[in-house]
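RECORD TYPE: inverse folding
INPUT: structure tokens
STRUCTURE:
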């Protein structure tokens, strides 16, 4: 229970259905450690924790605070920094779901003798031949199946997503009907929880000692290697970026590649972003235990991506080669690739590199 409307309504729904509910609020991060300028907000704030606790008191079930700051910092934050320093663009929310929150919840569930865990994610869990998999939610605008690709079979068998069959307006109305008028109007946060001001560049500078000094003199180059100017540091850019480059070249230019070894950022025209294939590592399969060669799927390369028809080729246990059936722009290493069959998640992984014929 983050204190937000979705997890709160989830708890209330299950309580109304007769389940024995225990509320868990996870403390993942101290905002004071982030150095951000904004007031503390979001799932880690004291106000949010108090909001979650108040609902538990109102509904008459137990509520606990689970401190996972150490695991979160060691894994999610360190990975976030390491990925940017390696020239990739990480997705910390996916990593947190996969390796931190679910594992922490399952451990606590076992300690409390709870059979299931439930969250306020907008997604649906289905089953085929004994395997559980995530499917898209009814509300296309709120669907969160993309960020859940890393969940294991054990996690899926013990998870419940009560909101997957509802739209966001319906959830807001439920909160209002239950007497939580203020909660029904509560704004949502889309910031990374440990970067509350959304300024990841400043966060990196605070976390990596001597970062700016070590990157002085880095070059912007074009796709042929011709030097175009100086950049502010390769970790501060991502593939597909057009705005905020700090260089004027007389025409729109985009980041097409990042080379951390040479401290170079490659700029090109929009057509230089086009790719027709990519390699995906750290793959987790859901719907099937193995992908047959050439399986057709819709592949999403970012959360708001509509997806592109593609063919999948499994390489070993944790790598998939994706061949797009239409050209795709802005494939960013480090981001998540998620494979869909209709509304069902086949699986997903981390984009490692892309290719262009």
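DESIGNED SEQUENCE:
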């Amino acid at each position: 229970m983050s204190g937000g409307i979705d997890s709160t309504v989830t708890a209330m729904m299950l309580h109304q259905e007769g389940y024995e509910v225990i509320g868990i609020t996870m403390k993942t991060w101290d905002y004071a450690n982030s150095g951000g300028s904004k007031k503390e907000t979001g799932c880690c704030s004291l106000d949010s924790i108090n909001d979650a606790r108040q609902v538990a008191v109102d509904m008459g079930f137990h509520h606990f605070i689970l401190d996972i700051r150490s695991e979160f910092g060691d894994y999610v934050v360190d990975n976030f920094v390491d990925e940017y320093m390696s020239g990739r663009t990480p997705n910390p929310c996916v990593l947190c779901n996969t390796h931190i929150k679910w594992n922490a919840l399952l451990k606590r569930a076992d300690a409390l003798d709870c059979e299931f865990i439930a969250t306020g994610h907008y997604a649906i869990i289905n089953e085929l031949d004994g395997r559980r998999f995530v499917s898209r939610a009814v509300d296309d605008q709120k669907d969160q199946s993309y960020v859940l690709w890393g969940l294991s079979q054990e996690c899926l068998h013990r998870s419940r997503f009560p909101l997957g069959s509802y739209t966001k307006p319906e959830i807001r109305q439920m909160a209002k009907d239950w007497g939580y008028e203020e909660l029904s109007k509560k704004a949502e946060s889309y910031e990374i929880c440990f970067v509350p001001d959304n300024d990841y560049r400043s966060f990196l500078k605070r976390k990596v000692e001597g970062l700016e000094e070590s990157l002085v003199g880095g070059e912007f180059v074009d796709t042929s290697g011709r030097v175009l100017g100086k950049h502010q540091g390769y970790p501060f850019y991502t593939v597909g970026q057009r705005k905020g480059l700090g260089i004027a070249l007389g025409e729109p230019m985009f980041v097409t590649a990042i080379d951390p070894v040479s401290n170079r950022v490659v700029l090109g025209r929009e057509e230089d972003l086009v790719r027709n294939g990519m390699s995906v590592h750290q793959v987790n399969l859901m719907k099937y235990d193995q992908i047959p060669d050439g399986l057709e799927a819709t592949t999403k390369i970012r959360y708001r991506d509509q997806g592109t028809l593609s063919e999948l080729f499994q390489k070993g246990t944790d790598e998939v080669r994706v061949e797009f059936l239409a050209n795709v722009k802005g494939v960013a290493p480090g981001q998540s690739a998620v494979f869909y069959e209709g509304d069902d998640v086949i699986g997903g992984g981390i984009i490692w590199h892309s290719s262009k014929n």
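NOTES: The mean pLDDT is 91.
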